[in-house]
Amino acid sequence: MNWSKFTEVAFLEAAGVAYLLGSLPFSIWMGKWFYGIDVREHGSGNAGTTNVLRVFGFKAALPVLLLDIAKGFMAVRLINFLDESPDSHSSTFIGMKIALGLLAVLGHIYPIFAGFRGGKGVATIFGVVLAMHWGGGLAGLLVFVAMVLWKKYVSLGSMLGALSFAAFAIIGELLKFGSDEGRIAMFVFATIVPLILVITHRKNIQRLLKGTENKINFRAKPQKA
């Protein structure tokens, strides 16, 4: 399908919106607006849900988690606002959705609204995964929850959950019969997801190997300014 220049411009605009959407630093705003502190200056120093839970507690972490997931999910759904788009099963269409989702993740990790110091992208990636392959997303979520409840390591649960999603998505695509042009794009996406989390969790991996990684505390008490 030949796109018009208007459609190409519309996709570029959607890409910009996806990055800006991902750049919304809900964890930082939560700390500054309701507790008078920057969450990046406390706990692990990370602007993510886990550190919000560690510093402020569950009541603050839950809305941040849901909003960060929504950023990734809505970024992928921006594809629906294009006037024209390729066939929904084509590699081009799937690739466009992946690009929008990954731009939101990039925005979360390097947010323009927070000095490019963001989180590790776990919740936002999960939102993207749900929008792209909800079955694999649920499989990854189950592994994540099981590992966090068992070992209390959010970083380990996140990486293993991503690997589980990748395995589920790849096997699911391989079991499909007939030719599917979008299959290759899904294979690439399933590979990229765990790779991103491994890269953003480099220091966590080092601490896990040394046995010094922090365990999550679900009873954390909010800090005051």
Strand and helix layout:
Layout: H1 5-22, H2 26-35, H3 49-56, H4 58-77, H5 91-109, H6 122-132, H7 134-151, H8 154-174, H9 183-200, H10 202-210
Question: Could you explain how this protein is built, in words?
Answer:
The protein has one domain (5-210). Helices cover 68% and strands 0% of the residues. It contains ten helices and no strands. It has helices at 5-22, 26-35, 49-56, 58-77, 91-109, 122-132, 134-151, 154-174, 183-200, 202-210. Helix 5 packs antiparallel against helix 6 (122-132), helix 7 runs antiparallel to helix 8 (154-174) and helix 8 (154-174) packs antiparallel against helix 9. It is globular and about 50 Å long. The chain starts with a helix and ends in a 15-residue tail after the last helix.
Which characteristics define this entry?
225 residues, mainly alpha, 10 helices
Quick structural gist:
The protein is mostly helical and 225 residues long. Helix content is 68%, strand content 0%. It contains 10 helices and no strands.
Which structural class do the helices and strands define?
A: mainly alpha
Give the SSE order as H and E letters.
Answer: HHHHHHHHHH
Mean pLDDT: 89
What would you call the shape? globular
Q: Multimeric state of these chains?
A: single chain
Question: Whole-number radius of gyration?
Answer: 18 Å
Number of strands: 0
Give the helix level as a range of percent.
Answer: 55-70%
Low-pLDDT ranges: none
Count of the separate structural domains:
1
Estimated share of beta-strand residues: under 5%
- End-to-end Cα distance, whole Å, is 56 Å
Task: Characterize the biggest β-sheet.
Answer: none
The total count of helices amounts to 10
